[in-house]
Amino acid sequence: MKMKKTELKVKGMHCHSCEMLVKDELEEIPGVHGVEANHKDGFVKIVHDESVNIEAIKSKIKELGYEVIGIEKKE
Fold first, then answer.
1. Residue 30 CA from chain centroid, whole number
2. Number of domains within the chain
3. What is the pLDDT of residues 13-64, one digit of tens each?
4. Helix, strand, coil shares of the chain as percentages rounded to 5?
5. Single pTM value for the model
6. How far apart are CA 59 and CA 30, in angstroms?
């Protein structure tokens, strides 16, 4: 299965704990193979397979109390 990389611009992460929360929660989603979060730059990079619904990822981030304000897909 082909891997994809998606970068989301996320508002509301303020510290390392925020990064770890987002990383840990997103890595629980089936098909997600890696997550990098950076509160200083406000991004979350996700490595995932084609089965992953980006809307589900955005929903999870919102559920955690953060806001997705942009998306940049990378193959």
1. 13
2. 1
3. 999 999 999 999 999 999 999 999 999 999 999 999 999 999 999 999 999 9
4. 30, 40, 30
5. 0.91
6. 15
Between the two ends of the chain, the Cα-to-Cα distance in Å is: 13
Q: What is the span of the domain harbouring residue 38?
A: 3-74
Token readout for 10 is: 């996320």
Structure tokens, 74: 């990378």
Look up residue 33 and give its amino acid. H
Domain with residue 54: its CATH number is 3.30.70.100
Contact 73, 58 (CB under 8 A): no
How many CB atoms within 10 Å of residue 68? 19
